[in-house]
Amino acid sequence: MTGPIYRQIAEELRRRIESGELPPGSQLPTELELREMFDNASRNTVRDAIRSLVTRGLVVTRAGQGTFVVERMVPFAVTMSTDSVTGLGGGEGVAYMGQARAQRRTPEATLPRVEIQTVSELIGRELRLDPGAQVVSRHQRLRIDGKPWSLQTSFYPMSFVEQGASKLVEAKNIEPGAVKYVGETLNLKQVGYRDQVLARQPNEVESAFFRLPDSGVAVLESMRTAYEAGGKPIRCTVTVWPADRNRLVYNVGAVPEEVLLTVADDQPGSASVSSATGS
Amino acid sequence: MTGPIYRQIAEELRRRIESGELPPGSQLPTELELREMFDNASRNTVRDAIRSLVTRGLVVTRAGQGTFVVERMVPFAVTMSTDSVTGLGGGEGVAYMGQARAQRRTPEATLPRVEIQTVSELIGRELRLDPGAQVVSRHQRLRIDGKPWSLQTSFYPMSFVEQGASKLVEAKNIEPGAVKYVGETLNLKQVGYRDQVLARQPNEVESAFFRLPDSGVAVLESMRTAYEAGGKPIRCTVTVWPADRNRLVYNVGAVPEEVLLTVADDQPGSASVSSATGS
DNA sequence: AACGATTTGTTCGTATGTATC
DNA sequence: TGATACATACGAACAAATCGT
Predict the structure, then answer these.
(1) What is the least distance, in Å, from the CA of B175 to any CA of chain A?
(2) pTM
(3) Which residue of chain A comes nearest to B58, CA vs CA?
């Protein structure tokens, strides 16, 4: 056919996977078997083909065992906003909102690791602080059913601590919720927030914590900046999830209640695949 | 050190890139030069190291030219929701909202490619249609400044057409906006929507349209389901963007106006990198 | 616990093709 | 046209992980 050999092999395997001939969880032929199947191509050529499937997230390789079609777990729906039902006017721990909605699963968080840092350029712009200003960062690792789920870091202006919100620098959970605590202590009420959502490749720390394979799985990152009534930013929270088992849900305006309780249980990409077919 | 040679080489190169010693756009040493730099490792070993950097999105290779540190373009902020300023109670083309906000850039869309399909399981669940029901799909490709930007497909129940919204099956832009047209024709008013955001590896069509490299760049997908006052879904829109040059912005509640107009111009991952450092 | 068989992972050498300048 | 640089392909050997005996 056309194109390099490793690509032809990869395409053929992809066809068999997507047709269901190689169902999720099943083992691919070994590299030696694939060699024979494809005109005695070199083992390295077969491995190039497999590598391209790994990068696309279609298969995983396990040393000593074989190569397997990925079994996607049920994606977890993280509710990021709900106008109608919850009516979250101001108070509660916005950063924990999604976690609290863990349907039928039990979330747990490590104690926060608290640091006082010179603000980065990025966070400084969000919190509208001068370069060189100090911020409190509170970092947590969250798990669901014991499995790593998200990494989260919240940044507050150090001035909040000086003005009396001293619990911010304690490495303990702030019980009524950090936003509520800051609101009560400093008389600041959260009236809105802005989420910036992006996807990127994981860094080393994230790969290790989430136990991600060498490649193929991106992470979703949300940077949430919360504002008080005067329009001043109160805090900035950066949360990172592995993209293969999470989706972020934003409800805007009136959304039927039964939909709000729905758990997403489909395969990602299905919609666009069908829509994009046939240039 | 520890670990395989190609990993050591990759780590060393990554260090030089992130320290600024190899700034964005600069050329890496050639494979032969890298061979000499790293204890006369095999050229294949050097290539393995570079490949891992490509997969992480740190460098790109160009045949005949060399390997270069990636230059990220300014990420485009796609506004997905604004409660306060725009006050989008119901009408306007929700799916085009983000595009209309193209700051200082000129968006253009292809004419819609219209198809009548049997509904997929995924879309059927969103639109609450029975299996086997028919839907109208309207597919568009959007560009900004002539460069590919997003792929978008909207699905409507075929019953809408039978009830009089005949423009839905015409391969032309619906001028007042499709949602408005449906609303006026069928007396349905959009009162809310639900966005599901995920990230995944691009499929073939997407890779081709967005001209994505073989690996390293994920796509962001948003599936937006719009609801009318009775709680019935009106339409479902799936939009896909390349993740390396877009971020989705959700404004909830009161967000200061000057923030709404801000263009994001930072590097992704900066926030979490600093926060995650030091386990 | 030890061993062998199987399977993927790493590393090397070499040759040739293709893109770019 | 030639030189340079990455892309593809092959063969070979040994390492490391896994599993069953």
Answers:
(1) 23
(2) 0.89
(3) A201
